[in-house]
Write a structure and sequence with these properties.
The protein is mainly alpha-helical. Helix 1 runs antiparallel to helix 4 and helix 3 runs antiparallel to helix 4. The two termini are 28 Å apart. The radius of gyration is 18 Å and the shape is elongated. The chain has one domain.
């Protein structure tokens, strides 16, 4: 599985931008290879895609991103769930996820396939896990401070995260657009006819 270590912050702008670019590039390359007949999905691959879609049902009620009316916890959970589902999908198919950030699909010396598609999506899904870790650390810090000080009005969690990472709200909305909504991974099974 992926053992990519990173010294960059949980939501550094360059880190997010490179993860988004990788996810878009690798997903597009996989779709293109399929549409050109260079990659024909096996029955196992089709079933795994169906299972990924079922396991990552965004439960957003058909509302388009960004999902500003929902809690940050729910929004981050929706994205970070993709990472675990993709790891399970890779294990189920006997594939290994590989780091794709900073690599272009044209660098492959073999045909693109399911491990590459999953790895591309994972690049951005893993960002969701990083954001979730940042959120949990923020909550833990707020709880520890509350035990040591008299009760004070609490700042909204989304605002607290935005203070730590100024691009958080914008990047979260962009990630939501990649994973949910028309033309996003919500429609992935339609692209692989």
């Amino acid at each position: 599985m992926i053992t990519e270590a990173s010294s960059s912050p949980a939501n550094g702008p360059a880190d997010f931008a490179s993860r988004l670019a990788a996810a878009e590039d690798w997903t597009s390359a996989a779709l293109e290879a399929h549409q050109e007949g260079l990659w024909v999905l096996t029955g196992t691959e089709r079933q795994i895609l169906a299972d990924v879609k079922a396991a990552t049902n965004p439960l957003h009620g058909g509302h388009l991103p960004p999902h500003d009316d929902e809690s940050v916890y729910v929004r981050l959970g929706r994205i970070s769930n993709w990472a675990g589902v993709l790891r399970l999908a890779a294990r189920a198919g006997g594939w290994e996820l590989h780091p794709v950030v900073g690599m272009h699909p044209s660098s492959l010396t073999r045909p693109i396939g399911m491990p590459d598609l999953l790895s591309g999506i994972y690049a951005l899904a893993e960002q969701g896990e990083r954001w979730q870790q940042l959120m949990l650390a923020t909550i833990a810090g707020r709880n520890a401070a509350a035990r040591e000080q008299p009760p004070q009005p609490r700042q909204d969690l989304g605002q607290a995260l935005a203070e730590l990472e100024p691009r958080f709200a914008k990047d979260l909305a962009t990630a939501e657009g990649f994973f949910t909504g028309p033309g996003s991974l919500d429609d992935l099974s339609h692209f692989f006819y």
